[in-house]
Amino acid sequence: MTAPALTLHDRALGAYLGFAMGDALGATAEFMTAGEIAGTYKGGLRNIVGGGWLHLKPGKVTDDTQMCLALGDALLAARGWDLHMVADAFVGWMRSKPPDIGHACRRGIRRYVLEGSLCAPPSEDNAGNGALMRNLPVSLVTLGDAALFARCTLEQAHLTHHHPLSDAATLLLGQLTQTLLLGGSISDCRRCVSETLALYPKFRFEPWPGNTSGYVVDTVQTVLHAFFRHDSVESCIVDVVNRGGDADTAGALVGQLAGACYGVQDIPARWLKQLDRGIAERLRRQTAALLSLPAPLPLRGRPAAPPPPDPVLSVA
User: Fold this and answer.
1) Which of 77, 161, 224, 265 is the most buried (most CB within 10 A)?
2) CA separation (Å) from 230 to 35, 150, 237?
3) DSSP-derived secondary structure letter, 297
4) How many domains does the chain have?
5) Residue 35 covered by a domain
6) What's CA 221's distance to the chain center, in Å?
7) Is position 127 within any domain?
8) What's the pLDDT tens digit per position in 91-139?
């Protein structure tokens, strides 16, 4: 019997829950090496057990999922795109005393609080993965509108991260996610990746260079290498998480792609049971609400001031 075709909602919820699963599983292994993970978890880390350097309870998530939810909440509160409301949502999240917050994210949010600035100055140390990790809600609400997707993606990214490699990575992962949400194939994704690699060869991931840091190039290489090697949500996430390093973010991002590709039905039932119930319910509600926003997405509030020209930053 032929399996029923995946709906947009199946794929969107798969992406969001897959993201959270990778985050919750990966948090346990963050900053560990692959050897340390293998020695601690016989057969590799395959279940959401909590712990890690943040000492999380099983099923809890980190700043990756929390910032996604904050961005999604801002979109829903505005019933459209309002960068001030996005920035305010990040401020509220930071003031909630999350278990972890990246240096660039903290710096950018504090700059907004103190100066009202919606755009970080271009800088070499803005090439982390903090903007990349939280962009899923933008991908969900700008389907079919490439220009609006690019605008919203870069505006939210530049709140805290302003670097051409961060920009390229955030656009690429969002484009791949949208391709999959709309029923595109792995081959379609390969073509999209090839176009980006022609412009940004630093992202080449075959053979995998073996780096797992929070540098956005390392994250993209790790995520793409695993995504194109496997054919299920579980196998993608387990592969990435057991490589260690910035395992929560890389695990979340590969879960996003795999969930969009294979749908929510492919997420292991045991992971759904292990994920914090409150987080799971928020993700389900937010996914449905984001998909119900009007298209094209209304633009509200004042747009961010045009950023100054980029200095010569290393992208080759």
Assistant:
1) 161
2) 21, 28, 9
3) P
4) 1
5) yes
6) 14
7) yes
8) 999 999 999 999 999 999 999 999 999 999 999 989 999 999 999 999 9
